[in-house]
Design a protein that fits this description.
The chain is of the alpha/beta class. It has one domain: Rossmann fold (3-Layer(aba) Sandwich). The chain is built from eight helices and nine strands. The model has no long low-confidence stretch (mean pLDDT 89). The chain binds adenosine-5'-triphosphate and magnesium ion.
Length: 192
């Protein structure tokens, strides 16, 4: 990719859209320091990304992707990684929001054990758990990279509503190759 310029000036909903393979996730990986080797500048709040430590970035970005990592351990353990002092009620509330609670309450609730990489959950359940975890964290920027690709339309509508609410107080970046997903979102200014 060459001559990419993106500016995200304030809280709100922003979208990065484009065909598969065009480099959307690469932009996110650069932003979150998962990869480097670029020329030019990436700045957050005026500060160059190279001067921001990875641990500080953890408090700036919440990233939910189609393959967000789910850890072996309980649902509660996975969620407390985002907010260590969250109460059980808070965890259940957010699990209801992402429509995962109906499934979990039939298992062992927030103590339901999750296998390595969430292999005992469906793809959509893993995405919802990753979403719930992100919603609990209190970061400045939320990035959803094809985060609802395995979720049924009804739940996706509910989740998009939650994301829209979130964007009143945060910077929310939605990455998608499905244009229907981003119709109501405000595009990032991208020049290439
Ligand atoms: N780790 C990697 N090493 C080398 N090339 C890569 C790597 N990851 C991605 N690419 C290449 O970079 C290009 C952009 O990939 P990227 O994942 O950013 O696409 P995308 O726009 O997010 O696509 P999709 O909509 O399918 O997720 C692709 O052509 C891909 O082959
Ligand atoms: Mg991608």
């Amino acid at each position: 990719m060459h001559n990419i310029n993106i500016e995200i000036p304030e809280n709100g909903l922003y979208s990065i859209a484009g065909v598969s393979g065009c480099g959307k996730s690469t932009i996110i990986k650069l932003l979150t320091k998962e990869i480097d080797g670029y020329t030019g500048h990436i700045k957050i709040g005026g500060k160059d990304l190279s001067d921001i430590s990875c641990s500080s970035l953890f408090h700036i970005f919440s990233l939910v992707s189609h393959n967000s990592y789910i850890f072996k351990g309980s649902v509660k353990y996975n969620m407390l990684l985002a907010k260590s002092n969250a109460s059980d009620e808070e965890l259940i509330d957010v699990l209801k929001k992402v429509r995962l609670w109906d499934f979990l309450k039939c298992m062992n609730g927030i103590d339901t054990e999750i296998a390595e990489q969430g292999s005992n959950l469906s793809g959509g359940q893993r995405q919802r758990l990753a979403l719930a975890r992100a919603l609990l964290s209190d970061t400045m920027v939320y990035i959803f990279d094809e985060a609802t690709s395995n979720i049924d339309v009804e739940s996706e509508t509910a989740i998009n509503k939650i994301i829209s609410e979130l964007a009143k107080e945060k910077i929310v970046i939605l990455v998608s190759h499905r244009v229907t997903n981003i119709g109501q979102w405000r595009p990032c200014t991208v020049a290439s």
